[in-house]
Amino acid sequence: MLLYYNAFNGESMQILLIHSDYLEYEITSKTKIAEEIEDSLKQGRMEDCLSVFIAVEEGDDDSVIENTIHEITEVSKSVKTKKIFLYPYAHLSKELAPPNVAIKILKDLESKLILNFEVKRSPFGYYKAFKISCKGHPLSELSRSIKSQEKGEIVSEALKAEEKIKSSWYILDTNVNLVPQEKFDFKDYDGLRKLTEYEVTHSRKVDMIPPHVEYMRNLELVDYEKGSDPGNLRWYPKGILIKRLLENSVTDSILHYGGMEVETPIMYSITHPMLSKYLNRFPARQYIVKSGNDDYFLRFAACFGQYLMKHDMIISYKDLPLRLYELTRYSFRREQRGELVGLRRLRAFTMPDMHTLAPNMEYAKREFIEQFKLSMKWMQEIGIEYEVAIRFVKSFYEENKDFVDTLMSLIKKPILVEMWDERPFYFVMKFEFNFVDSMNKASALSTVQIDIENTERFEIKYFDEDGKEKYPLMLHASISGAIERNLYALLETAFLESKKGKKPMLPTWLSPTQVRILPVGEEQLDYSLKVLDELDKAEIRADIDDRDLRLGKKIRDAEKDWIPYIIVVGDDEIKNSILNIRSREDSSQKNITINEFIKSFKELVKGKPTRPLPLPKRLSVRASFR
RNA sequence: GCCCUGGUAGCUUAGUGGUAUAGUGCCUGCUUGGUAAGCAGGAGAUCGCGGGUUCAAUCCCCGCCCAGGGCUCCA
Description:
Number of strands: 28
Shape: globular
Largest sheet: 10 strands, mixed
Strand order of the largest sheet: 8-7-18-17-19-20-23-16-15-11
Distance between the termini: 48 Å
Strand content: 25-35%
């Protein structure tokens, strides 16, 4: 099994630090476990250095390296030296690591320390004569135990491989020329410039709480939940309304496209042979759940359940393309603590996940293009601006340039391209639609990938015309990307608009309260309730501010709630059977009849799903969630 | 996960080695009003959690938790 746990308490690397006037050594003889060395390493001397004697213990792994560097750095600061002498010294421990592990850790340590220090290392596995002179001041002799990571964590091979993979960055211009990223003129492409900077150089200069985090909490949509693991949120009624509308909307579009909706378990056995192999080809960290004595991992997408389902299916070439779809509530990824932010990066998130089987690459490409279009349509429907990134294995690009032409003819703007020398994951190509937020951070929403290895791994087969069983190709698609991330993009978009001087708001079809009725005083309440009833019958989410407050106050509260339409009901309106309506979008006021309003409103939200308001309609009896 | 910064009523926040402001929200009463905040009174805080130093800790020290930023990473 390729998975590994680095963990378990107890093991630690032992180090002894001595601030020395000098340390010198000379090899006397070789042991069986000696590393190969050059002659220059047979003796050595360093002056005014921090001598670091090290014993790598059983169970130590890479995770001790950073901690050791940290310790050495701290001590070197306090004794004010930039010279480090690493000296393997087995006698510090009774439970030594295997020699190959120890050598690797020592070398890694050396190569990382060398970035900030002058470093010498004596060779591993030799008897050596050495002389040392200890400075003798209070801080000059220190010993430390460096622990491995304490908690069990599974790091997939793909995650580790990703660190090593070489990629090149280009911009595909509108003439479908591949321009090296640094040579492209970004003048008219600010969003793409930000995406590229983010992806290539990772440079950003920001120092503020992300606007969407303030919004999500202040609007009583979503909040942090201290009682859970970080990155698992609590959703209030208004938030869940928006979430459900987005979910229903994307599910509808996928069902119309031809996805067959299924539901699969959220946890799978860690020892299942097919699954554990796949875990290692996916760049994510997992949650582990115990059931009795068995370990299960929480799914990070709908892949597992759908693969296992497809494995058992009997599929003819006539049935292709075959698309299984699930809205994963939830997908779990145990992201690093420091990566989690608001709605942008979570440990539990909702994602529509569709897997399409295609008999060959031509077919797969055709599907890819259709799903690319479907994603474009989604982004357009929720009104989010995005930048396109495509990632290829180099050889795939060389063989499929025409395919790229087609994508460009659809998107008609420059695209960021990442090209891999070799294939780090299970896919040869993917696209993403990236949203760039108010802090110039980019994150992926829609994505489709062409997978060339998993049908074989999971023994997913179809019967071809010739009656033989074959492995199809498979596309992974998340048409909208994570639903939470869609809301993040909507809120950040609202913030970006507000910076331009517009009032921040959500699209009307997603606004929890779409219309608020404000009776000027108590005498208008009965009439106002009738108006509310009419709107309710028309399936418009309306509520009424029947609290004993001044009108100005009620208006202010409605504005703070980003309500798209405010209706004020006073004696004049009642007398003339007319509604006074203020629109948030353009701050205009209109006097129209209720039927006119309903008609224009329905026109505006045509084709969009709707749900009732999940809160009391009278504000006077509505509790606040925070 | 590591590094940096922060955590004081529901929310926003002032402040201090001798347990603490204010605004807002909430409750009560008064008021009745036209497009972003009427008036008054009241309740509301183990100052994130645990330990240490001290006669005394919300404040100083250590550990932890949570959040934001950086590294890293992605739906």
